Amino acid sequence: MSVSIDQVWAAAERIAPHAHRTPVLRSRSLEQMVGAEIHFKAENLQRVGAFKFRGACNAVWSLSDGEAQRGVVTHSSGNHGQALALAARSRGIPAYVVMPEDTAKPKLAAVRAYGAETILCAPSLAAREQISAEVQQRTGAQMIHPYADARIIAGQATAALELLREVGRVDSLIAPVSGGGLLAGSAVSLGALCPNAQIIGAEPEGANDAWQSMERGERVEIAAPNTICDGLRANLGAINFEILKHHQARILTVCDAESVAALRLVWERMKIIIEPSCATVVAVLLRYREQFAGQRVGVIFSGGNIDLDALPWVKG
Amino acid sequence: MSVSIDQVWAAAERIAPHAHRTPVLRSRSLEQMVGAEIHFKAENLQRVGAFKFRGACNAVWSLSDGEAQRGVVTHSSGNHGQALALAARSRGIPAYVVMPEDTAKPKLAAVRAYGAETILCAPSLAAREQISAEVQQRTGAQMIHPYADARIIAGQATAALELLREVGRVDSLIAPVSGGGLLAGSAVSLGALCPNAQIIGAEPEGANDAWQSMERGERVEIAAPNTICDGLRANLGAINFEILKHHQARILTVCDAESVAALRLVWERMKIIIEPSCATVVAVLLRYREQFAGQRVGVIFSGGNIDLDALPWVKG
User: Fold this and answer.
1) pTM for the whole structure
2) Do A272 and B268 touch (CB under 8 A)?
3) Which domains does chain A have, with CATH numbers?
4) Which of A56, A156, B183, B216 could form a disulfide with A83 if both were Cys (CB 3.0 to 4.6 A apart)?
5) Closest by Cα among A171, A224, A180, A227 to A199
6) B221 vs chain A: nearest CA distance in angstroms?
7) What is the mean pLDDT of each run of 10 residues along chain B (316 residues)?
């Protein structure tokens, strides 16, 4: 199973009535610091505050009417749950989101506010998968995995596709990597439109399963990731890994302190809110700047969902 | 002395090579809260982080070569100083910025980083004007007032012009009001393109000289404004007041707590950094929402310059 650029074009058409066409931003000060021309695709300005809406929306609108009517189900403590809830609402079908019982209340409230039914489970992957399977059996809902799903990957790929349609050829394209939905999708778009360009994943050192996987040529799992980048703790999916291997993705890692400094820099210089997971791409640009010198670089800003009441950590 | 739409078109052409064409943003959640269709012109994403660059750039590039070569001078503790410094650098001419000696160091550093010479003075308007006059006499530099200047007003007017060119007809246009450069400029653009629309100034209750001036039909000055909106403490300029009177501007006031709540809302929902002065426009939309119900509204987001280390006040 793979994902083709035709599937990405189809996804782009499918989600166009629902998703924002997010702006592409520049920053002279960041460009001077890195020594490169950089085009930032601002998916933090996407609906639900993250690129995740693209994949969820494509998955929901890919279903036949018969499949769709019984709804969709997923397990997610983060942006994918909100994205799927909103995507389901856009089609007028039920969404069931299985979430660990220790999920922060605002996240539960956000998923419910988009009209989904939330089902609490014990905070383990086994429990999440078991409860999801039960919900699926009880309701007949379609399971929509957060990243290891061709429809999701094709949907996430539309961010890079839009970026390349708008800015043209790039030398490198950087996106954060977690389960690999965004990075694998970006690799498909880049591989078709700019086949000689380099696809790069930004990953926290404390959750570097993608880096290890690419080094060893086989998928490595990390049981206890350790990073403040709460959106980047998942392990690569199998289909995601195969796509990244095919496109010879390069993974560059950064430490959390670099990501926090990068976040501050973006807030102050670019005047936009990005979340720590998203800041990894800027940390990569700065730490590995000699690799980008003189290049035209595309970057996916993945999201901007942050708890303002937990802000002190951004202080210098 | 007044400002015509032809001067605004000329300003738009003059600054085009230097200023960003900032994006126009929407927010479904804010639109639902207000019950209106709202188009936000994101001047917080402008160079130097505020609309001020437009006016400064227009003023600097309006000078003849003979005038320009001796440089420009102004007094400002805020964004206008940075804007003029960068505008002068874009033309390769000297800039002298007179600043009160109690100005925060990061602001001094920012003006110097843009290549301007800073001159410190006692923290009073009289001292600022005296020192500015001395610098002007010594250097032969052109004085560029922050707002009471037709070139500045025409430059600031280009933000509203771009907004209206992009989104078309609006029913109302809201911008913050301080000295009145932005609001008077916006009134000129709106008056020409949408003569039946209402121009609205957003003003803090603790610095409501514009509201008082429009009520009385004559310019009122406030000696000691009291607001956290540090960009909105100046009194209306004379030319600015005349333009606002001509266009029958309506001033709507908000308290600081409303502006802080509005700022949080924009950071969380729109994922962009705006400063408290800028948040007044959203506070106005929410407090006076019945006046905007069903309307198509244009809004100028004026700026996003904020000290992240002074953040605790955004906490709920």
Assistant:
1) 0.90
2) no
3) 5-51+149-314 (3.40.50.1100), 53-143 (3.40.50.1100)
4) A56
5) A171
6) 33
7) 92 97 93 98 95 98 97 90 96 96 86 94 89 95 96 98 96 98 98 96 98 97 93 95 98 97 95 96 98 98 88 54
